[in-house]
Amino acid sequence: MVRVSFLSLLLAVLASFHSAAQQYRAFWADALHEGYKTPAEIDALVSNLSAAKANAVFVQMRRRADAYYRLSREPFAEDAAVPGGFDPLDDLIRKARPLNIEVHAWLVVYPGWPFATPPRDPNHLYWSHLAGATAELQWNNYTSAGVRGTGLDPGHPEVLPYLADTFLDILNHYEIDGIHLDYIRYPEDADYGYSPAAIDRFNRNLARGGFPARSDAAWSQWRRDQVTALVRQLYIRLQQKRPQAKLSAAVVTWGNGPASDAAYRALDAYSRVFQDWRGWLEEGIVDFTVPMNYFRESQYAGYLDRWSEYQKDRQYGRAYVNGLGNYLNTQPQTLAQIERVLRPSAQGNVPLGFALYSYASTTSENTAQRPDRAFYEAVGAMVAETPKAPELAWKARPERGHLAGRAVIEGAPQAWLDYLRVELLGPGGSTRTLRTDSTGFFGAADLEPGVYTAQLYADQELAASSDPIRIEQGQTTEAALRLPASGFAAHLPAIDEAPLEAAPGDVLRLSGRRLAREHAWAEAVPLPRSLAGLTVDVNGTAAPLFEAAQGMVEIQIPFTSAERWVIRARRGGLESAPVAVNAVAARPRVLGVQRGPEFLEITATGLGTTEPPALSGTGAGDSEPYLRCVLPVKVILSTAGGEMELEPSLAALAPWIPGRYAIRVPLPAGGAAAASLRVKAGDAISPAFNF
């Protein structure tokens, strides 16, 4: 027992020694305060960082779709504090490099332009794709209540390529040491992600329809996947462009820390703003995270300790740097937090260092929020000499490689490239399932060296296979899965025939190809919205399905008004070309007639809306209140004695069976011998039905 305790203590001491020898001692320098906007500020910045024995700075280079570096695809920030023509990033790199201080470009990702006064520069994203643009060009995020936000929707198909290309372009012009992502998540003030483009993508990707519910687990995971897709593409492409550059992210830690992974998934980062930073570390698509453990020592010291313990034990072959909110604490409190978070966990794990927010707001007592030399010297006094910036083993001595893949469908719309399944077959029979993002990109980090094959699937059908892909240590291998549009189109569902018109609540039989995966029928009411992998979208709503097969599907049209019905078949992330059907108030057809001694009982379809309004996919009840037809309904009876128009005593949705209407009409005096009838709803008249 004594030996075990001694060994544990020895390991903890060694781990702590290693972290002191190589650890990040970093500051965030933000655009809100003094720090890097003039040559004199940058001189003071590097001097103060040296006094703190710091070896890295996260310097805010993108704030609200603008830039604090001159060679940017986005306009320079509207900041009068920066002299004309001065390039803060270039100046900082030149002055920090000789002092062994790493410069990481801190980029605020999804926020757009939250200010009341629009930006002056006509090239700002605000004018091209945010509130200043026409509706069809906007990339704004929306809440579930339909309120337009000021930032970008991660689920909009154009957002990922724009951000990835913009961020990686920095590497073409500056010798930065890393890219540091911030606000790489959905906003927290409401339930976001409901832009029309994002909802359409979700429904197409998952063969769904309609407006996703806030409680829908698949919708939450899809939004989580959109954030992760950007991180993944950035990481893999960063390895291609500059393998030694680091990708890091400032990540959310609100509230008390979790004691388990299940508890982590219940907290805000994962479940509310859809930022799965633990998953990024596990997948290996960030080099390190910087959890923003901003807690007042006087109130929430336990929160900090609990988060730190969780984070130390979940680095998964990557790393984390403990982010502390010195602006919330006094100097002694911040120093105490630094000392505490650097201690090994109960399992002997340590962080990769610490970062302080912020450089200018040094303490809670610094009301001027200006750099304070005494604070930096106090931080520096904690160690005898400036530690080296950590050597990341997976970069310095890599044992694995990465894959940067692209699906390329020549001449096809971008939507065809989205959410395709790629099976990566590797050495020893290993397999890994990947998905393309909205650009057709697919990637994998930390693959064992060897020969792989990538197979592209259209739902369950193999569409293309790659040439052999050789993964080598420390290399990022490119691979393309190419096929012509005609070849891929052969896998898409198709609707070939549809009625020319349809009424609200109508029953339609559509003919086509590659619709359902197998023949299936609805087994209960309410009718399912998906059968055998097939969903049929009608004007943005998943239609109830009666029956589906490879060559046909029978659906019910929603009980809503429309100028036309736009119908798409969806299966396994694939979508048919749209088919338009004219919307009419009624399209009556008689399905059957029962003759009683006093009444004719008529079953019909296509009689349109009801009052109270009906729900598609269900029938009516068998008692009052009946769902009566809104349009006036008449029965035109033809007998040997002539033709007469009869007034029904009841014309309403039939009990139990969706899309069926019950019409009861009194028989005329003398009854009706062999006859035929037609049903008139509004101005529409059905074909004759003989009985």
Report on this structure.
- The chain is α/β, with parallel strands linked by helices and 691 residues long.
- The chain folds into four domains: 2-394, Alpha-Beta Barrel (TIM Barrel), CATH 3.20.20; 398-489, Carboxypeptidase-like, regulatory domain (Immunoglobulin-like, Sandwich); 494-583, Sandwich (Immunoglobulin-like), CATH 2.60.40.10; 589-690, no CATH class.
- It is 22% helix and 29% strand.
- It contains 15 helices and 41 strands.
- Strand 16 (450-458) and strand 17 form a beta hairpin.
- The radius of gyration is 32 Å and the shape is elongated.
- It starts with a helix and ends with a strand.
- The model is unreliable at 1-19 (pLDDT under 50).
The CATH homologous superfamily of the largest domain corresponds to Glycosidases
In CATH, what is the class of the largest domain? Alpha Beta
Helix content: 10-25%
Low-confidence stretches: 1-19
Please report the total strand number as a whole number: 41
Strand order of the largest sheet: 1-2-3-6-7-8-10-11
* Major beta-sheet overview: 8 strands, parallel, barrel
Query: What is the annotated CATH architecture of the largest domain?
Result: Alpha-Beta Barrel
Enumerate how many helices there are, as a single number: 15
Q: What is the approximate shape? A: elongated
CATH topology grouping of the largest domain: TIM Barrel
